[in-house]
Prior knowledge:
Blueprint: E1 3-4, E2 26-31, H1 46-55, E3 60-62, E4 69-71, E5 74-79, E6 84-89, H2 103-114, H3 132-135, E7 150-154, E8 157-161, H4 183-187, H5 189-194, E9 202-208, E10 212-217, E11 231-236, H6 240-248, E12 254-255, H7 266-270, E13 274-286, H8 292-295, H9 300-308, H10 312-320, E14 324-326, H11 336-339, H12 354-363, E15 372-377, H13 384-398, E16 404-409, H14 412-420, E17 428-433, H15 439-447, H16 461-472, H17 476-493, E18 496-508, E19 512-513, E20 529-530
Parallel strand pairs: 2-11, 15-16
Antiparallel strand pairs: 1-17, 3-4, 5-6, 6-8, 7-8, 9-10, 10-11, 12-18, 13-17, 13-18, 14-18, 19-20
Amino acid sequence: MAVLVGLAVLGAGCGGGPGGAGGDGVIGASWGEPQNPLEPANTNEVQGGKVLEMVFRGLRHYDPRTGAAKNAVAERITSSDGRNFTVRLKDGWRFHDGEKVTAGSFVDAWNYGALLDNRQKNAPFFQYIEGYEKVHPERGTPTARTLSGLKVVNEREFRVRLRQKFSSWPDTLGYAAFVPLPRAFYEDHAGWLKKPVGNGPYRVEKYARGWQMRLRKWAGYPGPDKARNEGVDLRVYTDNNSAYMDLQADNLDVVDDVPAAQLKNVKGDLGGRYVNQPAGILQTLTFPLYDKGWGAEGREKVRRGVSMAIDRERITRQIFRGTRTPAGDWTSPVLGKGGGYRGDLCGDACAYDPARARRLIAEGGGLPGGRIKLAYNADTGSHKDWIDAVCNSVNKALGKDNACVGDPVGTFADYRNRITDRKMTGPFRAGWQMDYPLIQNFLQPMYYTGAPSNDGEFSDRKFDRLVDAANREPEKKASVRLFQEAETVLRDRMPVIPLWYQNGSGGYSTRVRHVALNPFSVPVYGEITVG
């Protein structure tokens, strides 16, 4: 899922049966209310992504242990030139309402997601397909309703022509924006939104916004990763400390983020039921470059200075206790060196250096308004401690008591809406949880001009050219080198400050077994057993 990381939007005490479950064999898990209705092409945050992962299966699916893309509904995806692809579907896949999954189920869904009129946040994920500029023009109205690069051959086969070569494109197809949709999505859209119908291992039984979603094992699922439990009750929590307390009392079965304040106690509290695994997550601070105070020419010195005023080593050690590692680039160690991770790429710009921080900020014209107001969502209880620690570090480095202050926003939804509406006036808490394990995914969706999660409105022609060239390059090593060259633009202009790489952390109750997080830091719900 392409997401601005809204991690740990968990919750306030919710009732339930034994162990916080909804019945025998059903798991009770913490959850945060998604920002938007659960249209696959309109969901680009973590909480909605959790549901889509359980309710849908696309052409490919990411291995819960390695992150490798493996065929799911696709029987094969072939290409002789890295631009023209033929997709062949497996037989026997159906939606929860009994409708057959066909090539048209994919093509219609992708056309819907790409069309400007439908205002889908993930529409740019279809920009690689020929004809995108006509269905989703930068200005004006569409001159076409469907992507010219998509063609249905028969029920089990369709063809895709991309705008340029993108040899690793098939590996992106496990992302939720590319899942198929049933006719009910179009014919009764309002009804579908109230109770989404997919083709995955779980079906939606009931959805009460702001409270709970009840998912139940679907007996008709043909995939190899069938659910090993009877269902999952996702309970909305607005405070992850409450979720943690419910977990300790066995009133909740699974949480997928342990509050920072509890990290010093969690091993004693949970013992072997504490989960701490590397994940493809990077936490950052994003600058609103649409604000002249932060985005004007020359202000990159101020942005770099702020980065160098943050003592990442101390904060990760004292606040996060082994669940974070200071960041030195804009990707993640889970990619490995061969995949593009390079922990020294940011260099001095990510090193704590108070003297240089003060000098750069002064050379860049000083802090806009004389102060940093560091925005974050306050509803989870998990961000205040580290936000305060960042501000304390900045204040100490600059020799001022109030050069940096926290700026809390009540709920994650309100926070995301302020970001989406471009109402931020200072740097804000952000981050990236990979959609698929490619360096391209850490860079293009966040920093390419007009990209779906480019919340700071960064734009740089050199960066865009390098990304385009990397996508065209058929040889992986050469492609990775080009992406890393694009990263040097981020280092020099610092539109986003990389803070730390994040592990996935969580815990589970005494009544469940086989709990693990995937490389995206999401519980592998289908493998959890009860009893």
